[in-house]
Backbone:
C-alpha cells in the first residue's frame, strides 16, 4: 500500500473536500482518503497493484481540481 | 430585518453554495431516475411527479430540520445571553466569524479558510453511502434532507451563527426557516432540471454572497460595540453627521409635557436643558430613539422617561451599558429610569438589546 499526499490547487470551499473524498466510492484500490480544505491537500492510501497514481490524478482532474506538482 | 436578509441571501446564492454537496447527495439518491432521464436517445423522461416528489420531500425535511436547529441555536443564544455585556461579546464574536467567512469566500488569504468548519469524514461518508445505496424513495430523500444539518456549507454556517446571535429560539428558527426557504427554489430547479449553473456564474454568485456575509459580519460587530457602550463604533462616530442631515423630530402623539419633544424646539436639544421637574423624556420609536443625542445637565439626578407608542421593534429592549440598566418597555406606555448624577463631560450610551438602535446622553 502506498500513502500519498497530493496538493490541490483550487479547493475553494469545504464542499470541494467532500467531493474529493467521494473518489473512494468511484475508484478501485482506495483504502483510505482524506481531503483537507484547510491544508488544501488530499491524502490517499491506495493499493498500487490495483490503481496507479496517475489514474488518481486523472480522476481528481475530472472533478475539476488540479493536482499541484511540487 | 435579519429574517429578510436571511431570505434574500438564501434566494440569491444560499442554494447554489450548498448545491455542490447537498445537491450531489440528492442527485445520487435519485440516480436511477436521473440516469434513465439522461440516457442518450431517450425521448421521454419519467413523469415529473416521480422526481419532483422526492426533491420536495428532501427540501421539506431540510427546511424542518434547519428550523428546529435554528430554534435550538436561538435557545442556546438565550441561555448565553445573561447580560448585555455577554450579548455584546457574542455579537462581536459572531461578527468576526462572519467577516472571516466573507474574506475566505473572497480568497483574500489562506488563513481565512480556518473560519469554515469541515464536517468529519465519517459523517460525510455515511451520508454519501446512504444516498448511493438507498433507493430513490421519498423516505430516503426525507432522511437525507434532515441529515444535511450535519454538512452545512459556508453561508449556512454564517446563518447558524446569526441564529445564535438572536438570543431567541423563535427568531433563530425564523432566520434558518427564511434562509432555507429562500434557497429552496434554486436548489429545486437545479436538481429537477439536472442542470448546473456554469462555473463562472456560480463564482459570481459566491462573490455576491461573500460580500453580503462580510457586511452582515460588520453590522454584527458594530451592534456588539454599540451594545458594549464602546466609544468607538460606526454609529457613534457618524452620529454628528447624521444629526445634521436628519429631518426634524416627529413627536409622539400626546406626549407628556417636555420642551424636548416640540419640533420647534429641536435646537434647544443642543444646549443643556434645565430639568425643573427632574424629568428627561426619550421617545422609543420603531426606527430607534428620538432624539438620539441630547445634552442633559451634569451633577443632577433625574428620571429618564421612556415613551413607547405602538413600538414593536427591539428598541423596546432598552439598555444603558454604563449603568447596567436593562428594561423591557411595554408596546405603549411610559417607563421611568433613574439616572444618577454624572459629572460634566460624561457621555452615557444607550442602545437596544441587539445594538441595532442607539443614542447618547451628553452631560454638560
Residues:
Amino acid at each position: 500500500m502506498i500513502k500519498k499526499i497530493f496538493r490541490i490547487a483550487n479547493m475553494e470551499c469545504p464542499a470541494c473536500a467532500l467531493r474529493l473524498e467521494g473518489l473512494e466510492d468511484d475508484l478501485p484500490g482506495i483504502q483510505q482518503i482524506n481531503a483537507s480544505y484547510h491544508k488544501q491537500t488530499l491524502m490517499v492510501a491506495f493499493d498500487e497493484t490495483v490503481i496507479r497514481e496517475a489514474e488518481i490524478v486523472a480522476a481528481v482532474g475530472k472533478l475539476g481540481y488540479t493536482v499541484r506538482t511540487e | 430585518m435579519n429574517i429578510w436578509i436571511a431570505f434574500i441571501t438564501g434566494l440569491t446564492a444560499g442554494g447554489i453554495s450548498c448545491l455542490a454537496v447537498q445537491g450531489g447527495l440528492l442527485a445520487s439518491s435519485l440516480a436511477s431516475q436521473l440516469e434513465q432521464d439522461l440516457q442518450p436517445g431517450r425521448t421521454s423522461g419519467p413523469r415529473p411527479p416521480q422526481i419532483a416528489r422526492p426533491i420536495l420531500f428532501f427540501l421539506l425535511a431540510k427546511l424542518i430540520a434547519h428550523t428546529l436547529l435554528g430554534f435550538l441555536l436561538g435557545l442556546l443564544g438565550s441561555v448565553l445571553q445573561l447580560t448585555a455585556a455577554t450579548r455584546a461579546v457574542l455579537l462581536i464574536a459572531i461578527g468576526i466569524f462572519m467577516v472571516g467567512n466573507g474574506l475566505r469566500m473572497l480568497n483574500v488569504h489562506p488563513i481565512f479558510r480556518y473560519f469554515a468548519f469541515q464536517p468529519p469524514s465519517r459523517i460525510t461518508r455515511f451520508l454519501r453511502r446512504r444516498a448511493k445505496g438507498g433507493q430513490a424513495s421519498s423516505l430516503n430523500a426525507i432522511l437525507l434532507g434532515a441529515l444535511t444539518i450535519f454538512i452545512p456549507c459556508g453561508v449556512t454556517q454564517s446563518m447558524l451563527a446569526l441564529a445564535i446571535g438572536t438570543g431567541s429560539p423563535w427568531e433563530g428558527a425564523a432566520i434558518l426557516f427564511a434562509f432555507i426557504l429562500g434557497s429552496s427554489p434554486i436548489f429545486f430547479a437545479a436538481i429537477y432540471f439536472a442542470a448546473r449553473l456554469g462555473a463562472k456564474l456560480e463564482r459570481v454568485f459566491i462573490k455576491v454572497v461573500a460580500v453580503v456575509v462580510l457586511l452582515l459580519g460588520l453590522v454584527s460587530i458594530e451592534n456588539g460595540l454599540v451594545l458594549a457602550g464602546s466609544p468607538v463604533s460606526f454609529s457613534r462616530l457618524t452620529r454628528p453627521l447624521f444629526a445634521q442631515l436628519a429631518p426634524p423630530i416627529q413627536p409622539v402623539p400626546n406626549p407628556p409635557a417636555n420642551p424636548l419633544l416640540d419640533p420647534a424646539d429641536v435646537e434647544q436639544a443642543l444646549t443643556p436643558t434645565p430639568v425643573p421637574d427632574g424629568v428627561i423624556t426619550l421617545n422609543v420609536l420603531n426606527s430607534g430613539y428620538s432624539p438620539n443625542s441630547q445634552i442633559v445637565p451634569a451633577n443632577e439626578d433625574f428620571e429618564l422617561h421612556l415613551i413607547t407608542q405602538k413600538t414593536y421593534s427591539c428598541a423596546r429592549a432598552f439598555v444603558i451599558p454604563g449603568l447596567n440598566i436593562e428594561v423591557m418597555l411595554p408596546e405603549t406606555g411610559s417607563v421611568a429610569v433613574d439616572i444618577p448624577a454624572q459629572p460634566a463631560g460624561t457621555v452615557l450610551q444607550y442602545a437596544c438589546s441587539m445594538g441595532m438602535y442607539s443614542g447618547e446622553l451628553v452631560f454638560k
